[in-house]
Amino acid sequence: MHVSAERQRVITGAVSQVNAHLDALSAQFVSRRALLELVMLGLISREHVLLIGPPGTGKSAAVQAIAASVDAVSFEYLIGRFTEPSELFGALDLAALKDGQVKPVTQGMLPEADIAFLDEIFLGSTAILNSLLKILNERTYRRGQYSMKTPLISCVAASNAMPEDTLLAAFADRFLLTMFVDPVGEHELPELLRSGWAAAGQPAPIAPIGKAVIAELHEAALAIDLSGVHEAYAHIVRKIRLTGVTLSDRKIVKGQKLIAAAALLRGATAAGPEDLWPITYLVQSKAQQEEARETLAAELKHSFNPVLADSLGHATYGPTAHAAHLADQATALLESRPALVTDPLHEIWLVRLETMLTRIDAAFDAKNLPQQLRAIRGSLETVLEAHSNGATAKDAAPEAVSAETA
Hints:
- The protein is of the alpha/beta class.
- Among the domains are: 1-45 and 185-314, no CATH class; 320-405, no CATH class.
- The chain contains 16 helices and 9 strands.
- A 5-stranded parallel sheet has the order 3-4-7-1-8, covered by helices on one side. Strands 2-9 form a two-stranded parallel sheet.
- α1 packs antiparallel against α2, α2 crosses α13 and α13 packs across α14.
- The longest helix is centred in the last third of the chain and has 35 residues, at 371-405.
- It is globular and about 85 Å long.
- 34% of the residues are buried.
């Protein structure tokens, strides 16, 4: 489909706005850019996201931040064993009930929300989950004879673990994207501590992104040409299914929306092999996601996306994605250099530089080092060598003075 120059300018501006928005949000959370990207991908695709991980990994805080940063109506609730449907969908309108009408008061409740965040989703009762199914699948809320269309763009749900109950697993399948959230890695602990302490104060306000921008990108994604990837996508689905992963027909058809959105955010009008990586998030088992990344290493090795780089990196073991991720981390680390050499944090910073250098060398040998990492690796070595030479000179000075004194 031909896109006019003016239309393309609008789309490009919207993509840039989303990228800047993700940058601002991720600055408040250590190692959670991928999660934020995936929620944004869900919003643009108008699909639902499931986050699985232990308590205290920042799932709720990150989702709350992105929901608050979109100029849309949001609804949030922590579901418990004894949560009543009225707590999510609204209590009955007593005035209407006197007239013999069953009508809930939905103002401020889930049926009127653009974005919903439901924590501990699998603790919901059968009545809650049945009503949610209708909203998730058809964007319709029904109670008895009462029915209304809901404006829901995306529902983000969270839980500590995937359910073992087959009925709950069938409900979970309605969430197209699934991410398993782990605690922050050891090499990022110092940054987590600094960020956490800074967050104890008032976090910097983030200009909200308009709901219209999300809608614009959704419409543009629906116009992406997918004809060039249908065969490759089908091959990947077949390959994953051979490993024992269950992917429903509904899920793989809807998965095309993620591929289209990825291509759009890459700046393309047609999807290519580099946009197939979201398929990893269709898999709803942590072990099977890991296996899918290994199984699809060849098919996804050329994956690329400048806006969704972190979620792409989580989805594939491809060298291009891995190199881009390491390059971004190394660049940020070099830019965080303490102003004074005498600052106690300077020694910690040097240790982190050494760790980053080790990570790069472990991932790529010298002959296969991607160009984007070569220069950055050289910068790391230069800083560490300069420090080593400076330390050697300082160590030698006292010995020279002692010799002269003697």
